[in-house]
Amino acid sequence: MQRICTSLANHGYSVCLIGRKVKNHPIPDKTTYRTILLNCIFAKSFLFYAEYNIRLFLYLFSQKMDIVCAIDADTLLPCLFYSKIKKVKRVYDAHEYFSEQKEIVIRKLIQWVWQLIEKWCIPQFKHGYTVNKILQNTFQQKFGVQYNIIRNLPLLPANFPANTTISDTKVILYQGAVNHGRCFETLIPAMKQVPAVLWIIGTGNFYEEAKTLIKAYGLEEKIQLVGAMLPEKLKTITPGAYFGLTLFEATGFNQTHSLANRFFDYIMAGIPQICVNYPAYAAIQQKYQVAYMVNTTDETTLANAMNNLLNDTVLYQQLQQQCGIARKKLNWQQEEIKLLSFWKNICIS
Q1: How far is CA 254 from CA 146, 217, 250, in A?
Q2: Which CATH number describes the domain made up of 171-326?
Q3: Range(s) of the chain covered by CATH 3.40.50.2000
């Protein structure tokens, strides 16, 4: 969202990004857009979503705007109600299929509620964008909407930092949300067999469980939970890792048809990665050959993949070279053109 908001603000739009305050989560000091963070008493469960939706609607209702953009299904209702009452245009940023996340899929009643919200709301958001062709087709078939594809690609810097190491030991990097469905249950024990260290940068709904697993397997010296980090600082860390990880369990449509930001961040940083061989990633891999693909995410497969990439210097250098080629095409400067065209058309329609 920081990247999208910055691009819009830099091109003359007045942008306000609304979210919620999260404990120990860093906030950018200076931005070209406004940021409003709402205080919520509850941090999880139904009570959190109910409170957040109410607070968001009340805040929106006190504001004046020309267009309101919902980010994920958990903001659909307040944005829809506001747009109807105030008679303003509405947009949906559907960067994932919310009701098909693992943490929702495994709780059928919760999933049913979110599916009802999506079924009622999304058809009323005629304008929107998502991250790949599969999700685009899915939203069209299920909800009758034709969304654009705008991927959250990293900015291509004028000068690339040197790939200097960030530790005496080779660092394997996981960056992103530490959530259910990201394979930590198999990744953490797999590290017992890998002569490297793992840095996990991020927070999420599986963070405490990850901490417990690390302690249970006695891997406190090999796995470091770094916590949340501002993108500007993360950009200086990623190039120093030996390789990255893009892993999702095959549980839920959203998991198997995702297109995670970290996949492109590793490419931009010039480091190979181990990645699940799911359709959206496989399509890019077929064209650019930037990753070591795995068909399953069990402990043995992950351990073997990490050891192979650590030991096969020829393969590693090939993947690294391909990252240098791919990032000249897979960057925000290219994708921003689509974003600005989308919003220009919304404004004049």
Answers
A1: 18, 29, 9
A2: 3.40.50.2000
A3: 2-153+333-348, 171-326
Helices (H) and strands (E) in the chain, counts: 15, 12
* pLDDT (tens digit per residue) in 236-252: 899 999 999 999 998 87
Query: What's the predicted TM-score (pTM) here?
Result: 0.89
What is the distance between the alpha carbons of residues 253 and 133, in angstroms, rounded to a whole number?
A: 14
pLDDT at 224 over 70: yes
| Cβ-based burial of 182 (10 A; exposed 0-12, middle 13-18, buried ≥19) | buried
Sequence letter at residue 172: I
Tokens 């291509």 locate to 156
Pick the CATH number of 2-153+333-348 from 2.10.25.10, 2.60.120.280, 3.40.50.2000, 1.10.3720.10: 3.40.50.2000
**Residue 212 belongs to what H/E stretch?**
helix 207-216
Structure confidence by residue, pLDDT tens digits, 159-218: 766 666 677 789 999 999 999 889 999 999 999 999 999 999 999 889 999 999 999 999
- Residue 122: CB atoms within 10 Å: 23
Residue 241 CB burial class (10 angstroms; 0-12, 13-18, ≥19): buried
Q: What is the pLDDT of residues 88-117, one digit of tens each?
A: 999 999 988 989 988 888 889 999 999 999
